[in-house]
Q: What sequence folds into this?
């Protein structure tokens, strides 16, 4: 089994896709006005509108209700990303800091309140875990 994507349900697909395009530098591939994907080498971040929820199971997901999942992006330089996100990200939860497990991380919320972590492995052990 392979994890291939995380899907965010939102009330405003265009706004959230635009945010993630600017934050990541990845252009979205649009399926239609209710669905787009930002594809990276490791996984895909899918963004879908509320009209897609009943196709799976009515009421199964609600937009802007996540408080338990962190969306994580591996980056080459978290401090540079922090500088680049200035003016785009309005809710920085924790500025760049080196974590005990060896990653330098920046934690913020997207426009729907989803928690996002961008990180750079900095210790030898962390770099070995994420060697590309």
A:
């Amino acid at each position: 089994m392979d994890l291939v994507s995380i899907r965010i349900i939102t009330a405003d697909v265009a706004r959230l896709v635009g945010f993630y395009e600017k934050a990541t530098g990845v252009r979205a591939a649009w399926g239609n006005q209710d669905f787009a994907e930002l594809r990276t080498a490791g996984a895909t971040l899918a963004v879908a509108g509320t009209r897609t929820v009943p196709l799976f199971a009515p009421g199964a997901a609600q937009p802007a209700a996540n408080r338990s999942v962190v969306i994580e992006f591996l980056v080459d330089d978290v401090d540079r990303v922090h500088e680049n996100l200035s003016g785009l990200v309005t809710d920085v939860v924790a500025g760049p800091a080196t974590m005990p497990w060896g990653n330098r991380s920046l934690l913020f919320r997207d426009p729907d309140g989803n928690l996002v972590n961008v990180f750079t492995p900095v210790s030898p052990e962390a770099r070995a875990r994420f060697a590309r």
In short: The chain is about 20% helix and 35% strand.
